[in-house]
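Subject: for your reference before the review

Hello V.,

The reviewers asked for a structural picture of the protein, and I figured it would be easier to keep everything in one thread rather than splitting it across files. Below is the amino acid sequence we used in the manuscript, unchanged from the supplementary table.
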Amino acid sequence: MTTMHPAAIAFRDPEALRARSELGGFRRLHLRPGYESCAVLPDATWQPLPESYPERFAPSIFTQDSGLIEFFKLPETVTDRHVLAALVGELGDPAPVFLGETDDPPGEPVTHRTPETGLRPGLHVDNHQNLPYAARDTARRRLCVNLGPGSRHVLLSDTDIKSICRTVHDRYETHHPSTDDLRMFVTLRRPLKLLRIRIDPGEGWLVPTAVIPYDESTEGQELNSVTASWLGHWERGLFGPLL
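And here is what came back from the structure prediction:
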């Protein structure tokens, strides 16, 4: 299996990560209403995370802040959306980009929609900056908070988009990675696993979503959940760790 690179998951307790996580495969959709063509979705064959698995994603001395996946619980002082927005504005990026709020019903295998079309892309990479391969590691991270009332999951590929590009392109050094590269990768039947991590109300995550293919899911939940998301350049450790 390909180890996440250049991103890694920040955690202190491997058992805490395993308790929230499952590992599964993927399926491809063709000409399904509401979805982009060849969208990659989880196949719902979730299994417990193997005991030795967390160490595969542990940060190294080479992991940059921009490549770190972090999970956190909001401070108790964050009591509403206005306080949350003010907090994000004080995290260190002078111009964080607010991506809006979403209210997703339960039972959705993936939740994101492409704003221009309203279609679901499935597992995808963010391309707000459209950085080329060589500069992709410097992209802004996505900060997402679950405002509840229900829980949800963040879905993460175990293979980053740079590794994918090296597989599907001969001249990857000048390529601008995109979700189409991921779809080509799975069409070629390259190995890919999805990590599903539960995010409860009042919790959030920071992920380099321009590097790690991702989505979110409300499958198996009973309540809807609202999220608020931003993009920014943030140092590691801004919140107390969840795991």
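For the response letter, the relevant points are probably these. Confidence is low (pLDDT under 50) at residues 1-5. Helices lie at 14-20, 81-88, 161-168, 179-187.

Happy to draft the paragraph if you're swamped.

O.
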